[in-house]
Specification:
single chain, 0% strand, 4 helices, mainly alpha, 136 residues
């Protein structure tokens, strides 16, 4: 196994910060959208809104997973820096590899959330197409 310098794990910090910013924006956007849909559903009882609720629930699960994996990644990265600083190179390497695994899992969860987001948009588009065909 290759020995890494103490600065190598530190390189992940800016990337994780950007991930948290993106993930927080996703969460805030979906929270706003859920509140809007809740108000719409209470007024109209539209079945399309009911489909969106299922989508929102899954998307929230993935956003939470994204954030948790990113948190575990940054904790592992911090532990790696500490271990390398203490001269425990092998353990530091393992902690750094663990942080990379967690960040990768976070990114994979992000991809899944993106897929569910696209499906949610498809539901809206299908509803708009149906309404258009009824008007014409």
């Amino acid at each position: 196994m290759m020995d890494i310098a103490i600065t190598t794990p530190a390189l992940l910090f800016p990337a994780v910060t950007i991930l948290f910013l993106a993930y927080s924006n996703r969460f805030l956007t979906i929270a706003t959208r859920i509140r809007e849909k809740h108000a719409d559903f209470n007024k109209t009882k539209n079945p399309v809104d009911r489909k969106q609720i299922v989508s929102f629930r899954q998307r929230i699960r993935y956003i939470v997973a994204m954030e948790l994996f990113a948190v575990f990644g940054i904790i592992s990265c911090t532990v790696a820096i500490g271990l390398i600083f203490l001269g425990l190179q092998w353990q530091g390497n393992i902690a750094f590899a663990t942080s990379i695994v967690f960040i990768t899992l976070s990114l994979l969860a992000s991809i899944m959330e993106l897929i569910f987001s696209t499906c949610a948009l498809s539901i809206e588009l299908e509803d708009m197409e149906e309404m258009k065909s009824h008007i014409l």
